[in-house]
Amino acid sequence: MHSTNLLLEEPIRMASILEPSKTSFFPAMTKIVGTLGPKSRSVDTISACLKAGMSVARFDFSWGDAAYHQETLENLKLAIKATKKLCAVMLDTVGPELQVVNKSETPISLEENGTVVLTPHRGQEASSSLLPINFSGLAKAVTPGATIFVGQYLFTGSETTSVWLEVSEVKGDDVVCIIKNTATLAGSLFTLHCSQIHIDLPTLSDEDKDVIRKWGAPNKIDFLSLSYTRHAEDVRQAREFLSKLGDLSQTQIFAKIENVEGLNHFDEILAEADGIILSRGNLGIDLPPEKVFLFQKSALHKCNMAGKPAVVTRVVDSMTDNLRPTRAEATDVANAVLDGSDAILLGAETLRGLYPVETISTVGRICAEAEKVFNQDLYYKRTVKYVGEPMTHLESIASSAVRAAIKVKASVIICFTSSGRAARLIAKYRPSMPVLSVVIPRLKTNQLKWSFTGAFEARQSLIVRGLFPMLADPRHPAESTSATNESVLKVALDHGKASGVIKSHDRVVVCQKVGDSSVVKIIELDD
């Protein structure tokens, strides 16, 4: 295992732990993805979420129709205008998710040691003895002794609202199970998860494709969260589908690793995807509990070294109903940051939780505290060693910019970029100061009209740790040799000063292209 990133070389004075934290314009370098839903879809609540630190809004199509999500998205746009805070949009697919349908919505009580039948005949009514499911191939996929888990929406791990089943026998298309714990299932839809069993369904279903075509494409989504990614081929097929939908060719695909099948093919999936989401709810069921931490640390390390964003889910489940996280959850958030995650994804906590804004704010504060003790020096050396020599031209410039910023104690790194790649490479080295990514729009044409690129690139950096984008005036090219770059730099510096990141006499490291050359320069600000 790789050594921890916790800064243990400098012992921390116990009394200093209690000192109040300094307020900062950027709540934390680690980003927060919030799932918008019933408790978080009004303009006022979304505005408060953005101010609290949410930078990516997730739309989960496991429930709710396109019209419902469209209404929420329109509210998000109004909130962005009102708060002047940029926010990216993530569409989360349903994928091969197995569901139990409870049309009557009557609570279903299941008693320990009793039996219940899972049937593909959806027309039947759900009861304590019969649960209709949306998959006809379950009987062929499972064998006696297999473990099945049923719970509402997302698994909470609470043994009163979710149930463990053990397959006792298969009768035709039906699966007879022994109930392992007493529970009450409430609501209209429950997720069903078969532990370590291959489900023969496509990763991107026809329903998913329909949603992407009719909702994702018109709304120019920034990220596609590909649920239940099991092979690299899943990502390739999704990318091929997106490439045929105009602007969605720029949409980044985040592979959601949810089971042992995805774990076994992790390296090939990472090579193909733009980022990774560790779906710990389902993984926690598929993996033995004592192995979950090991997979998290290993997966995050691989993502970090590849320079691809890694997102961790299921951190403060208890905040769905409570104003404060448990001690274990607070520590878990900090450890996710120290392990190297770029973003924390909040699901039920903001979707249907009672305290969506407070949850975002609390998670942001924990992340900020963890970042203070992140061993940046060790991390930098490890990353440089992993990359090896000879480095590519861009990698060399990025690592040099971070090293220079650390040596001169710069308050911020400003990076001019048009594709966003240079800024992401700088962020890969996890500098202790914010990276202000100045995205220079590029003019493109299809012979019928002109349009500018850059908005996608700016929003897609909102999921990368330490990266904060701003869109430059398109009249200032990124590779200018004239004074125009200086005027863009002035705008960036003014933005930094206004936000309190840059003060008089601060040093700033600037990374930009001048002609064919990439330049790293250090500037010291006057009064």
From TrEMBL:
GO terms for molecular function: ATP binding; kinase activity; magnesium ion binding; potassium ion binding; pyruvate kinase activity. The keyword Lyase does not apply. It catalyses: pyruvate + ATP = phosphoenolpyruvate + ADP + H(+). Belongs to the pyruvate kinase family. It is found in: Cytoplasm, Cytosol. Its EC number is 2.7.1.40. Its cofactor is K(+). It comes from Panicum miliaceum (Proso millet). It holds the Pfam family PK. Pathway: Carbohydrate degradation; glycolysis; pyruvate from D-glyceraldehyde 3-phosphate: step 5/5. This is Pyruvate kinase. InterPro entries: Pyr_Knase, Pyrv/PenolPyrv_kinase-like_dom, Pyrv_kinase-like_dom_sf, Pyrv_Knase-like_insert_dom_sf, Pyrv_Knase_brl, Pyrv_Knase_C, Pyrv_Knase_C_sf, Pyrv_Knase_insert_dom_sf. Keywords: ATP-binding, Glycolysis, Kinase, Magnesium, Metal-binding, Nucleotide-binding, Photosynthesis, Potassium, Pyruvate, Transferase. GO terms for cellular component: cytosol. Residues 30-360 form the Pyruvate kinase barrel domain. Residues 395-515 form the Pyruvate kinase C-terminal domain. The keyword Disulfide bond does not apply. Its main location: cytoplasm. GO terms for biological process: photosynthesis. Homotetramer. NCBIfam families: pyruv_kin.
